[in-house]
Every structure is written in C-alpha cells, then in structure tokens.
Amino acid sequence: MDISKQFPFETIVVASDFSQKSSSTLRYAQAIALQHGAKLVLVHVIDPIGYAFPTGVPSALSVDQTAREELNRVEEQLRAQGISVHSVVQTGDICELILQTVRDHGGDLLVLGTRGKTAVGRAALGAIARQLLAKTEFPILTVTPDVEFLIPWAGKWRTVLLATDFSTCSLAALTAAHRIAHRLLTVLHSSVTESDTEHRSHLEQLRFLAPMNESHTVPVEHIATTGEAGQVIVDFVLKHQIDLVVLGSPATMLSEEDMHTSTVLQVISGVHCPVLCIPAPREKGKSATSAIESGREETAALQKA
Known about the structure:
two-stranded antiparallel ribbon, Rossmann fold, 20% strand, alpha/beta, 10 helices
C-alpha cells in the first residue's frame, strides 16, 4: 500500500498556547505536514475573561499582540521549509472557536498538545481537551511533551495499535488505522473477564473486521485478552515499539473523575506516543450492523490499493 496516496489528512489544524511544552506539538505536526505536503493552520484562542475587568484590559491586549507576533514568527519559519501555513488568533470560547476554525479551513485533523508528567504521574487531560474530544466531528491527534524521539516517524507511523470494543466509533477508528499503518497494525480487544468461548469469539471478530492484508505489505496482528482496557493498552504500548495508538473518541463529555473508568483518558494520559481519536460517523439512520459492513468494505478496498 502506498501510504502517501492513502494519507487522509490534507489540512492539519494545530491548537497552540505557545508554551514551551506546546513546541513539541507544533514540531510533530510540522513533521506530518512535511511528510505529506499537508497545509498547517495554527490557531490560538484568547480567553476573554480578562476584558471583563478594568485592570485586565491592558494585560489581555498585550497577550493578544504577543500571540500574533509569535504566530507571525512561526509562519515565517514554516514557509521557509516549504510548508503552506495560515494562522488564526481569536478571542472567545476556546473550545467552540477551535472547532469553528477547523470547519472554516476544511481541516481533516486537529492536533492538540496534552500536559506532561506531575508528581502523581502524567496529568489528566485539561477541560478544553476533554470538551474537544466529546464535541468534535474531526479526528484529534493528542501529542505529549515527551514525543520528541518519535518525531522522525510522524506521518509515516511504522507500528500502529488500534484498540476496539466493537462499537461504531471504534470501527471508524479501525478504518483510519488501516489507512495509516506503515509496517504493522495491531488490533486489540480487552474484556475484564471472558470465557474461552468468548475469547475465541472476540478473536474471530477481530480477524473478520481486520483481515490479514493479502499482499502482506502491512501485516495485521490480532490480540484478544483480559483486563481493564485502558491499563492493558498502556502496558502494551510501554512494552512494545508503538508509534501511534488509534481509538474511537468518547461520545460524551468526560471529567477528571472519569480517569479511572474512561479508556480514552487512561490511554492518552498514560502513553508516551501520540493518540489519534476518531469520532463515530454522524450519519442518521445507520445501524451498527451496516456500519460494521461498510467499515469492513472500506478496509478491504484499502488493503487492495
């Protein structure tokens, strides 16, 4: 499979706060853009709360000006490398304006930096990130500050791990994983407990949904196991050389209290590699069965490409 022809992201929107940690996110997105000739759209949204206070106006204006100057500097650097780039600075509801920027510019992917490690381990996702994951109709790629060693493989992911619970959302994620896996795709399902019969059934489902590539250019490994899905995925990533994890996006807004029950939050906050979250297709009247069939048909077509 020629990944350059299959790569689905032509316009990449990067949400940045210009902190030191966000520089890794920008460099990772830049590497993807260089690899595939994608366009970058940089967006920075300023929280308008400072304008509500008389003493906050000068500070808010200063932040606005600083952001625009920094964006101009970054744009110049990116254009010097041959990357098509556009930047946006807005003031208002951060989550809604980021999503609107993606829509306005026809974005295929939203790249979002996540916080690094704290005294109690890697921090949970911030409120804005959790809102974006729940509200977005676009794929979101979360990037940690310690992703630097994986930047050479950004956009040409060698080993991709797709975790599925057989939901419509994770089936959409499976299709995306097939499109971008370069050397090996591992498809994993984990149940808290299961009998031998259930284990065999789950393994058969994985093989049905993600059959071995006929040309063997991108082998598929199938794993059905037991345990809490989030912890199983994190442990697998830490033990193996994984460049990218692909998951279905959460359907509802999550809080930090959901850290112990949400697979998505556990994985994003526990792994060192980027995590690509794919939202479920928003087609009305489409059943889960038809979603499975259409997802499998698209996967088969991609394998023969």
